Amino acid sequence: MHDIAAMKKIIITVDGWSSCGKSTMARQMAKELNYIFIDSGAMYRAITLYFIRNQIDLASKISINHALGNITLSFGFNPMNGNNEIFLNGENVEALIRDMSVASKVSEVAAIKEVRDFAVAQQRLIGRNKGIVMDGRDIGTAVFPEAELKIFMTADVDVRVARRYKELVLTNPNIMIEAVKENLETRDYADSNREFSPLRKADDAIVLDNSRLTADEQLALALTWAKECMNG
Ligand code: DC
């Protein structure tokens, strides 16, 4: 039995393709290790929501910088569901940012250099004391290249589409599986082909393909890796 509190505090990064369950696994790891969990995608989604609401012109650097100056992002723990939920200027937008209107715009917004600089600065600040599990696309490559444990998650595309569809249909019964697949493939392409911090596996990341793993199996595997790193 390991005494987690006595172990070295580390940074754990979980990157990978859309809808492979990165946030779910990162959240479970954080809970088991008593670490902070940060869903960096939620930050890009909240910024996108602000841009949509305020009709920010993505071609205008002035408008983008002005808008970013008016955005404050924070996370708050919800004891009802155990989630670390995102707040945009004090408003809990955790549910709103999962909407397809945000999903279809977020890759375009996340590709903007000023937006990335804004989000990455906050991510580094949150992780400065270690003891954190952060999931996203560039966490192991650009945000915390010195992280002690880097996991790169992947799963077959049809498995990922089926999982995301199951999630979205709960709140939107009219959603078509084809639309979910198209959004996922478009985002994967945009996220891995953009100019700044594209999605890619860090050279020292461990690949976790969960197409045929249960949530419990993948969590057990990831926790074994984490404890190895925490033991130095
Ligand atoms: O993890 P997610 O699907 O909620 O992320 C939403 C989008 O945000 C994703 O399509 C790409 C972008 N993103 C990013 O560019 N960098 C990150 N670290 C996290 C997310």
Molecular structure report:
The structure is a single chain. The chain has 232 residues and is α/β, with parallel strands linked by helices. The protein has one domain (10-220): Rossmann fold (3-Layer(aba) Sandwich), CATH 3.40.50.300. It is built from ten helices and eight strands. Strands 2-6-1-7-8 form a five-stranded parallel beta sheet. A three-stranded antiparallel beta sheet has the order 3-4-5, covered by helices on one side. Helix 1 (22-33) crosses helix 10, helix 2 crosses helix 6 (113-126) and helix 8 (157-168) crosses helix 9. The longest helix has 17 residues, at 177-193. It starts with 10 loop residues before the first strand and ends with a helix. The relative contact order is 0.22. The mean pLDDT is 95. 2'-deoxycytidine-5'-monophosphate is lined by residues 18, 40-41, 44-45, 106-107, 110, 136-139, 187, 191.
List key phrases describing it:
232 residues, alpha/beta, Rossmann fold, five-stranded parallel β-sheet, three-stranded antiparallel β-sheet, 10 helices, globular, binds 2'-deoxycytidine-5'-monophosphate
How is this fold's topology laid out?
Elements: E1 11-16, H1 22-33, E2 36-39, H2 40-53, H3 61-69, E3 73-78, E4 83-88, E5 91-92, H4 100-103, H5 106-110, H6 113-126, E6 132-136, H7 139-143, E7 149-154, H8 157-168, H9 177-193, E8 206-209, H10 215-230
Parallel strand pairs: 1-6, 1-7, 2-6, 7-8
Antiparallel strand pairs: 3-4, 4-5
Helix pairs in contact: 1-10, 2-6, 8-9
The structure holds 2'-deoxycytidine-5'-monophosphate (DC).
